[in-house]
Amino acid sequence: MNTLYRFFFRISKPIHKYLGLVLCLYFLAMGASGLLLNNPGWIRSMSVSWNLTPVNYEYQNWNRMLVRQGFIDSDDTWFVAGKAGVLRGDDGVFTALEQGFPRALYERDTSALLPLDGGLLAATRGGLYAFDRSQQSWRQLELPGAGRSPHVVDVVRAGQQIVAFTARQVFVAEADELSFRPVELTVADENFRGRVPLFRILHDIHNGTIIGLPGKLLVDVVGLALVFLSISCLVIWYVPRRNRWFARWRRNPGTFFRFNWRYHLKVGVYAVAFLAVLAISGALLRPPLLIAIAPYSMEREHPLLSFSERSHGLGGKIQRALYSTWDNSILLATESGFWRGPADFSAPFRPASVPISIHGMGATVLEEMEPGLFLVGSFSGLFVWEELSQRVWRLPRPGLRGGNPFMSNDLVSGVILQEGYPRFRLDYHDGMLPLSAQRADIPPAMPREIARNTPLSLWHYLFEFHNGRIFEKWLGTSYMLVVPIGGILLLIIGLSGLYDWWYRRRKAKQKKRMESAQTEE
């Protein structure tokens, strides 16, 4: 048996040593980026220069959500919103409405725009802002209990009231006052036995929210552990080789080396199980492994979800909302599906049946064109839904081929409305396009200056790195393998290190027992 253990040790030792050395900088970056992504408040004011960004991330024709929503006014004035903030267009000339608006790129990212008499409302990552056309300036509106700069996902008009939504809260104000107050959104889920997609559960495991705030903090600590292990492995490797390569600088390993050696072992042993969970969950969240788990789901009453928001309430974050005029209701698109309730929130919301397939990334378009006629879009395409008859028809993008929306690139990220109807569609990759092949509308040219002034926020840049898409320029479609392979290799490195530690510990105990036996003799 000792021979077998020694054989495995001779295999695991070089695996842990050399594979860890080759990948330590990658794991250092993954640990640091994961920690920062889990705490966006730390970096929300930072951005990354275009000089450090791959050229395929440069905006073309309003794509990549530079603009994700907008409308054309009665006097043919354009108002569009997205990562560039809010822009006004007159006769094809666009200018940014910046006075009083958030300056940080992360915070100015706007998800919804609502026209008001004499103004606008903008739902941004940095709060809800009101624009006064006469003053040509913005002011932030307070949302009590939501924090200083909450991420507002949508804002709609419901009769004489304005309703603003964050991912988990609802605020209501009179349209002529804009003094918001929180309202309670109750859910009648006693008979709702929904299912939660497995990929959402894995995502919650990966960021720790599967058990709420304690889980998030635990994942932060594990991220710090991965950063420390990556740095300490370099120290442990470099110091002995420095003495070997540079004789004149030879010195005995000092306190710093001993600290890294000792705690690399301790931290590694205690963190290996958590790192394994993060490695496996991260690998499964990217193609091609994501495709394998996509069909699977879990009942929301499952014990694993006992402390998760998936098991109660809306079952996830609010993504989009609309006000239905024909029945005075609010329709919500959430991570768990659609929910509907009265516009005054006087009764619980209930699951709503919407006969449209929504992409896993969530709904990107939810608009009422006329009473009972809705426009619904996601990365699975753009659809019109007539509720009374339950008829659905698709508005395919120009040049659409086949029925697979992933292969056909029908990735709808938004629409431009005119008089309540869609005039242009916004594709994530190809930007602003005519609504259909039969329409001859020509979208306005994208100002290069505005695009150059909208580099990636540091959070978005790290997000692209953490999911591997940043490597697409160099690896092509093979970039999808970076994260799954990295996760598998992290698992191998962790398990081999654990085996090395166990083998040395076992050998030391055997030696100690032999010495004790000899002493007794």
UniProtKB/TrEMBL annotation:
The keyword Nuclease does not apply. InterPro entries: PepSY-ass_TM. The chain crosses the membrane at residues 217-239, 267-285, 479-503. Keywords: Membrane, Transmembrane, Transmembrane helix. The keyword Cell membrane does not apply. This is PepSY-associated TM helix domain protein.
